[in-house]
């Protein structure tokens, strides 16, 4: 009787080993797929972050030129790098960037004489493009003080 049981169980270890190898192979394939997917996500995030920083550079250019409200346009290969460009306006305005917006006079802070000093409010919209990603940023800024009656927009 004992020898019959041993003969029946002879191939059982091989079947268990093959099943374990199958499970480990499936885990390995799943890990490779997950790694590939995560790599593409991190690459897209990096490109998007680059486009955001290019748009931020456009904001800084716009803020530095205030109270001048002329358009901003930095072509590819300009100061931002060979694959990056920025312009004022939305992503649709790349071929014809828009001027910065003057939003008029802003109430002066408490303690400032409004008959002598005034503050202007501006809106700077820029879009940055890096590789194939674009990001748009909008900033409103109070700028001044200016003597009342100054001809800035």
From the structure above, extract its key features:
27% strand, elongated, alpha+beta, single chain, 153 residues
Provide a descriptive summary of the structure in words.
It is a single chain. The chain is α+β, with helices and mostly antiparallel strands and 153 residues long. The protein has one domain (2-147). It contains two helices and five strands; from the N terminus they run ααβββββ. It has helices at residues 2-8, 12-65; strands at residues 73-74, 84-88, 101-106, 117-130, 133-147. Strands 1, 2, 3, 4 and 5 form a five-stranded antiparallel β-sheet that branches. The radius of gyration is 31 Å and the shape is elongated. The model has no long low-confidence stretch (mean pLDDT 88).
The low-confidence parts are none
Distance between the termini: 105 Å
Roughly what fraction of the amino acids lie in strands? 25-35%
Determine the mean pLDDT: 88
The best one-word shape is elongated
Number of strands: 5
Tally the structural domains: 1
Integer-rounded radius of gyration:
31 Å
The chain-level structural class is alpha+beta
Q: Helicity level, as a percent range? A: 25-40%
